Please model this.
Amino acid sequence: MNANTTQEISYPTEKNQFAANLVANIIAFFVNFAISFFLTPFIIKYVGSEAYGFVNLGNNLINYVSIITLTLNSMASRFIALRIHKNDFAGANKYFSSVIISNVVLTLILIIPTTLIVLFFDKFINIEAALVPDIRLLWTLLFLNLFISIVTSAYSSAFFSANRIDLQSRNNIISYLLKGAVLVLCYLFFTAKTWYVGLAAFVSTVFVALYSVKYSRKLFPNIRFSKKDFDLKAIKELISSGVWNTVSRVGGLALNGLDLLISNVFISDSAMGTLAVANTVPNYVIAFNGTFSTVFIPQLTKIYAKGNIDEFVKEVKSSFRILLFFNSIIYGLLFSFSDVFYTLWLPTGSQNIELLYKISMLTIAGCAINAISVLMDNIFLVTNRLRFPSIAVIFAGITSITITFLALKLTSLGLYAVAGVSVFVIIIRNIVLLLPYGAKCLGKPWHTFFPDMLMNIGVVALAILIGFGIKNLLRLEATWLNLVLLCALTAVIIIAINFFLVLRKSDRQYILSKVQKVFKR
Model:
């Protein structure tokens, strides 16, 4: 079929497809978390917490370098999807092919600075000489993963455009299992090295890339790469929109992406290792919110393309409630039982459990209050109103770094300052700036989303009280079985309350109808 022809796309039933996307994303998240749950203490046992800290620092470096690619790639899926929804496949092909060619050129350019980082990183950070060759190979593999992801990123737009996030999640699940299998095999049968983490990531990344290419061709057979479709105007359009995502990411790094580097340089490498372990669980919560929010973007994009703003607001508010339903369970369990979890999870004597718990809860508290802002980002992305949020993030980042440095110099807060300042600044930014601006982007009153924020805080607080109440009432011995039982009991109670407190009548009726169908089979 000619790439310039048009055809109608047959989309799945919206509500059923949304449910499939949501379930697939949740399963993918928990598979990834489960693998990390078993492998993190496994890796720490073999290589130590300090070496493990360099794994997280390497991933942070990937985030720093990938900022450069955001200007081009962050808006590619949106523009391709809008053209496909309008059956303009010629236009979609221009964006698709132009992004691929530009990413290849960008990757060739990035090879130079990343090579310098790998060769000379030991000159700028605190690291034992014995660890240098191991970490150098680790970071080489991590950067290689980045390059593969950049070159093939355009192919993942097919999942977004076709609203088949469930297929992408299935791909991610398999990649997580591959990563876990490679790590287990390496650590069981070979001398323990930190670079095995990079090797496992490489295998996982290659699989994701191949899968994305395959399904891009399957979902949209008339979307094909062609050098003839390269369009400089399309690149300029993507850059003019995406540059604000880049600015936002820079601000985000200033807010909390430099925590490990600051800890290494201004405190110690062991402090960096402690912070890396403490951030393991919070980072998965942040990843869950980010991954969860992507489920709503295809439908929001489709609604916005039709110009139905009232339906758009309704969809955004619905996404708030659904995210809150799950998040309140997660936060209730984490606040109540993380101290017991860390005691059982980590090798005995390897960490200060009280310190880990307090630092983790600082970050989790920020996540609980700021979760709604993740969904506000969907508004800015779909409406292409990214300038103000990006400037707000930059301002918040500069403020956070300034206060953190002052706290480290003038107080003895140490890691508490590194972890806590950014949380406070993010909360202020989201409540004062982003919530009102999200309403403004849709032509609605500034306070449109404040009731959702208040409901978010209230429901999460209630879930935490339930968790602590059950923990203090039963006072069971710290064992894995007892922890599972306490978490299960707490989760059931929170779910029962949320069913009536958070969900609308139509949501409850939909869920009950699905349950009835299952039992009738």
